[in-house]
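hey so i finally got around to running both of the ones u sent me last week. sorry it took forever, my laptop kept dying halfway thru and i had to restart like 3 times lol. anyway pasting them below in the order u listed, first the sequence line then the structure token line for each. didnt double check formatting much so if smth looks off just lmk and ill redo it

first one:
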Amino acid sequence: MKKAVFIFSFVFIILLNFIFASVVINEFAVDSQNDRDGDLIVSSNDEYFELYNSGSSDLNLNGWSLLLIDTTNETHVITGTIPTKGYFTILNPAGTQNNDGQIILVHSNGTIIDRVSYGSYNDGNLSDNAPRGNSSNNFNECLARIPNGKDTNLDVNDFIKTACTFNNTNNFVLINNEINVSCAFENENVKLSADVNATNISSVVFSYNVNGTNKNASGKLSLGSLVSYEYVINSSELVGGNVTWNVYLNDDFGNIFKNGIKTFYVRNKTDLIINPPNPDGDNGWYVSEPLFSLISDFSAIRKYYRWDSIFDILYTNPFNLSEAPNGAISGGHLDINYYSEFNCDSIINETNQKQRIKVDLVNPVFKNLNPANGSIVSEVKNISVFLDEIYNSNSGINKESVYMRIDGNVSNASISFTDFGDLDVFISHTLGNLSNGIHSIMVYAEDFSGRNSIVSWSFEVNNSDNPINLIFNSPQNISYNSRRVLFNLSTDKIVDSIEFINYNDKSPKWRILCKNCNGYGDDKLRVENFNEGENFVSVRAINGSNIKFKNVSFFIDSKKPKIIKTFPFKNFATNGSNFYVEFIENNLKEVSLSFNPIEILNLTQCFELRKNKVCSVNLNLSSFDGEKINYIFNVSDSLNSVISKEVEVFVDTKSPILILNAPQNISYDGKVFFNITISEKVILEYYDESEKKWKRLCNNCDKYGADKIVKKNFKPGEYKLNIRAVDSAGNSDEEVVNFVNI
């Protein structure tokens, strides 16, 4: 400010000057960008000058004047009163003020109270002038003291170009503070930004609060059409819920300015849930088909997934590998992509997430047995077999697991391997020439997922002129429902002994059936006990150096399936979701569900639960709404079938109607009122975004707070509640309310 100093001899004149010096030229616009006089035209008539009174009393301005000096001089006489700590605005003053000039505030007694020179007006000291008065937008329309009444006696320090406040507190203007996305997600970065219309900036600080933790970070300068500062919140800091933030500006003179608190909502990223959560095979491989579920933020309108490059699939229920390329057949390295869709003014997709899983559903397959099974050869010096992993993306043969038994004895010292690509292996065993007789071979191998296979076969080495003819009637290559299996075999001559071995025993060894005989079980009933599951049996007839072998494989399943539990329970209400049966059966063939009673479905979604198995299905029962239906499960193995008890349930597929009267989208002072009615008896609960958990309001109720006043305590802050009503069948209705508790 440039003030003329007058020395008067009268003390009251000095006192008056001190009082009047509290009034300054505070803000003015000489190149208006807004229509302020209401004539719908932006012109020089919208120029204005604002005075500010920092004193402790109101002042009468009658007779005061503004001298408006540029290329032509004008005088505007003032009439009125300026309040203490208040403003007096002169709209459309006399004449038209240029972008470069001087303004002088003169008391009615002729005393100069305040003086401002700006732009290129030459008052003898151009370096002290305030900026030019020209403007190009709303954000540089005014010259203003920041803060109000700031007076260092240097106009260049006291005035900056900024947005007009017009009878309001002058301030640095933080404009367009915003985030860079309309939908914020916890797995994506969020950029905060604020345009700043100010000079003499010392620092700009972004303050934000995530999940109760407050952080401050310096903004990064970004120059464009406006001075802008920005800060990026890394996704690693974000969690689902509301994030509050503000921008603070510090100037070179120690002043701190801030904008109002802003809030944006961070949506929980979509999570892929795999059941079982940990691979059930070796080296990170699943060896049984897992079940997948997608869990996303409650505000998601749809969820999608896709396998590799196949088209997107709308998620409705937990799914398995049926849509994956060869997934349900072979597995392999499978990439599952998933995301959710949200309505944020427009439909916006969450960033796609990807997870790779490794699934091996097929045991190694043995091919090209050499010598061939059942063959008769004159000599054998090499035994070989090809191990095929079948599918190109399976786990591959673990060569360290391979071993071979020759006639029951482990022989792996001289096994050699030939690789076929990354997965398959050809194994061979070189040995001296085998003696006459039948020889049994067993080869065991695992892949890297832990899946294993055993192959057993036999062949006869016969360079004798007197072979044995062994007739094998039983056992046969079939399934048996008893562990006691009938034996019936004979020879064409009396032999020294007839023996057998079961290679699926824990410790396989040859057992004598008879000596000096020509049959076993051909003249009377003979049975032997065998293991549950697969049994690979070799029988040999020995007569001196002549040996004759016969092999047979059969399956024993003597235990019927056992049903443990079915759901839904008797007389329960259901909307068709989560029908399941829990049972015990090691050799499962099929599980089916029959209801009402002609509808029959085969269940494919099955998983292990402790030592039991569970198969489930979701039914569309909309055509049975309001009726009762009966259902049964049928669990079968290869030989037996068990049916569950018939269960009667009530079908309810209609959702309850929730009417939320309170709370409302308003501000509360202290306690928050609840008033809710529902069309039927439900469990009523709400989800508080700030606490991340569901809270129960009432059980088996159709109203809450409707009969008597119900209030709940909430701490001061902003809240987003998701209120949900769930009926006994699992149908639900939800409402969302946002409020502020002060």
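and the second one:
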Amino acid sequence: MRWLEYIAFLVVVLGLARPAGVYLAHVCEREHTFADRVFSPIESMLYRVLGVDPALEMSARVYIFCFVAFGFFNTILLFLILAFQRWLPGGPADAYLTTPMTADLAANTAVSFATTTTWQAYGGENTLRYLAQTVGLTAQNFLAGAAGLAAGFAFIRGFARQRSGAIGNFWVDMIRSLLRVLLPVALAGSLVLVWQGVPLNMSAYTSVHTLEGRPQVIAQGPVAALEFIKNLGTNGGGFFNANGAHPYANPTPLTNFLGLLAIAVLPASLMITLGHVTRRPRAGWTLLGVMVVLFLAGLFVCDWAETAPAAQLAGMHISGGNMEGKEVRFGPGSSILTAVVTSNTSTGSYNSMHDSYQPMSVLVLLVNMLLGEVIFGGLGAGVYSMVMAALLAVFLGGLMVGRTPEYLGKKIGSTETRWIVLYALLTPAVVLLLTGIAVATNSGTAGLVTNSGPRGFTELLFAYASCMANNGQTMAGLNANSPFYNITTAIAMMVGRFGSAGLALALAGRLAGERRRAVTVGTLPSDTPAFAVRVFSTIILLGALSFTPALALGPIVEFVQR
């Protein structure tokens, strides 16, 4: 039954990839869509109000500036909302807000949601007011997701255009992504969640008595407003501390399955968008195929690790796999699938506690994030992360056969190669440096309140890998609400968002100015199984060279010890 669910999920994602990818291509290229009659007047009004000239296009430098400035503006705005949330009207009552919103926590949370990371060093139900959740966090899920999709569109144009000094208009791309993609799909998805029992209210928390006679407080709130867009915008932060494991946030297997589709379909579809816009559809399908193979490899290992009888339970006559930290209503199948899907993308909306997973399962989740969003990935980030890996494979292939590297008709010269190498080294440089600082300082090790040794090291590495990948999920054994972690994780989140996108867009701007070369007998094909194998091998080799020593100190040695 588990593998039937896995196969069904993959079939639906691949089935929706082409129509969704073609639609995104129309949105990217400002072509006619069925939604023009509804959204074109709203777009025109927003352009007038914001003073945007839709006919004016931007160079890569200006586009990057607008992307970063928009992110920093949203960060400051959200910081102010969080810092002064005590004075916002509405619930919940002050008595339930037991976690103080300190300046460093507010800054970390603001950076987190403005970068689509949604790393949460707090519990939503005991920290935030309803208006802070909706006006602050939910709004950022829309805006940051639309900005990421806009960056993906601009990156694709770098390969599609030739002899052009522009890669689009950030404000136009962001508004079109928001109106024509995120808002309508999120509205429909949120209505389904309400139908399935997800609350959407501003009611006070409910006090009840359990069957044992003990008092219990049940949190309420506008949960459905946040829960679908957190997945669709590849954000991931939950309304509740338990995230997707909470029965109000994710009550049924149907809501769980739809949430996973919301996470994966758009990032997967952007590979089809790449092929459609560049007029090389097979190239897009080739890269999507690499993603699928990597996804299945991780899913297979994680399923094996979590469903095999645990060594710790040997001799206790307990059958079955590891159910610790998993919700019974989802079982091992939906829990494993969710863990793999959320670690593949920038969406850490887990429905089980990953600190309870077996070492090899944790290794899979870690590797998925450390590879840099090449498996589906986030909105926008997924397409340029995978293409960057493909460009590195093209360069290495060109070196081996003595040919000038080309991809989608664009020459990859020495300058372009420098951008690609910088992009490839960014994740290991940030993650390993910050993990080393955390391990070597008292402020860092103070966060290890549950585990030490290899498991504790894994928790530190997991945290920074998650933040750098703009993923946001964490292992519960790390107490990250301290000035040290609020500052260092914010650094990783900002570099993962703005550093990676800046390098990708700078490369796109350079490629847009080049002439597209015709395919000749000397051109290395980029749409064949052999090329897919080369890209796959490059991703694995780069990840192994960068992270094997760190992984050997964490989940690998823990697996060997058990």
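quick thing i noticed on the 2nd:
The mean pLDDT is 91.
anyway thats it, ttyl
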